[in-house]
Model the fold of this input.
Amino acid sequence: MNRFVNAMWRAWARVDTWFNKVYPQDYNPMYYLGGLANLLFWLVIGSGILLFLYYKPSLLHAYESVEFLTTRVPYGQAIRGLHRYSADAMVVWVVLHFLRVWLTDRYRKFRTIAWISGIVLLVLTLTVGVAGYLLVWDERSLLLVRMTQWMVGGEQSYLGQLLVGGSKITDATLNRFLFFHIGMPFLMLFFLWMHYIRINRPVVYPPAPVTLQAFGIVFIVCGVVPTVSMAPAIIEVVPKQMQIDWFFQWGYWLAGVFAGAAGANSGVAPYVVWSIGLLLVTCLFFALPYVTQTGYMNVVKVIPEKCTGCEYCYVDCHANAIKMITTPEGINSKGGKRSIAEILPSRCAECGICVGACPFGAIELPQLQEIEIKDRIGLIANLPAPEPAASPAAD
Amino acid sequence: MSEQEPLTTRNPPMIIGFVCEWAGQLDDYLQADGFLTVLPTVQIVKVPCSGYIKPAWVQEAIQQGWDGAFVCGCAMVDCHYREGNIFLRDRMTGDRNPYLRLKGGKGGRRGVDPRQVRSFWHAGTGGESLIRQIHAFAEDLTGGSVPLGELKPVRRHPGPVLDVSPLNPTGPEPEPAG
Amino acid sequence: MRQLAVLISVAMSGLAVYAAYRMLQIDIFQVKPLTTDLTQFPSPQLGNEYALWLGVLLTAVGTALIAYKWAIGFDGIQKKTYGIDTVTGE
Done:
């Protein structure tokens, strides 16, 4: 198992080095994937607010309000394109960020809360994106609604009715979709807060040149591929196919393939199986930090007698795992110090950055103490004059 | 690079390196006692993060007689723990406490000669390119050429420190077949 | 490597200037964004073209900045920082 983790991690590091040949190390976008997702999130929200000014959530007026926005409102199509393509780009960065965090082993123990909130954010990103397509109320929207209803058990099932607000599609349905598309991003903001909560000085935005390139590419796509709607939806007629936005609707395409393989008369069963499968995979990812607990041993320990309360370790800890407390009774203070450091074990990453920060040797990693390092440095005294090129086969 | 005067008369020079375990992977080139197989006078000390490294160790190493000392951390901005390599870089340049005392810089007379210290910021890929850079460091120290063994990775030995970490299997490995 | 970086930096700056020129050539006030008279039907293509050139401008400026960093020899750390040699690998 560890070999697999090691191999995946090295493969990802290899990909990073390709980008290091094109970008200087601290401008490499692969190191800012989360920041890029966050950045594009604000672009999506900004353009979405502008679109919201014109949208009318009713069966009769939704399609025409979107058409009005696209063809009559100045720059309407450009803003609509910006909204759609920055959302697509955001999915790309979010998925890359998810893969990188998973394959480079950055999700365990002290990062568990970031991982859990991150999976929630991934699911929400995809859901909110699909909900956006539902608002346009063209043929694609209708097919997406029907397929989603099939995935939860059919049009008359409990969840199917919950989705559209009843046994039939009415104006209330579009209001509900509006909630999914505009209310749920507020939930995303909450989980984004949770995503950052245990990180000291999180890097939330990429550096300026990378930001410019990211925005620029979205704008270019926006200009080159104008956004259009399909034909307006007719509720009684379920469309057979739609123009697919691969970034958000890959799940629907796969569900369709699955259903096609299952045969024409299988009803909603393949869709339900598919959605249960997706749910299981998501639960597996939620459980990942809890099932892979290998490798962590001991958190760092403060030696209170040596601690002077200088706060270097407190500032340097990247996981907020150190706090300063008033020196308890019975500890011999060094020159009358008032506070010493204390570790919060559940947040400690066992990295030792605090050890490197301490000029007084007052904090130690139990599994690698300074005395061992000093012994290795002291090897120079015992070594004979070096011989040229000892044979590599000696071991 | 061989034009500068040599800093040591020993060839090959004795170098100690503090290498982060997530940075350039030297495991395939390590002997059991911590020396590199292809550069047998280079001692590698593996640490969990480059931020763990105290510049005082680098100073002490030079003062105790090592010809050169280097630190190796992950690529900038890519520290596995996010900030360790940035902090170490700042400590090595004197911008962050506790810092490395260099002669002619903040260290005054008791500082170390800056030419005997080097820092590498290397992504976590294979050790070959890092070894070449260490070799270049060795050649700069001696002012001449230093023999380098053939760069063929042997089956990984357990590192001298941190046998148990998220990247290593628990416990030392059995002896390799060959 | 450095010559290539200088070349790309200059080329991207030139592209950025050209994109800005094309952007400014579009008479954005022909669209009269604040009008309430919607018999003035602007072409959506106007906005798309504007977005395209804005995109080219942003990408070109970003790429020029990156190439400029390479051209001046910056590799993420600066090769020699305050006295000790620094090597960025891979």
User: Anything to note?
Assistant: Chain C is about 60% helix and 10% strand. The beta strands of chain C are 80-81, 84-89. Chain C has a mean pLDDT of 79. The radius of gyration of chain C is 21 Å.
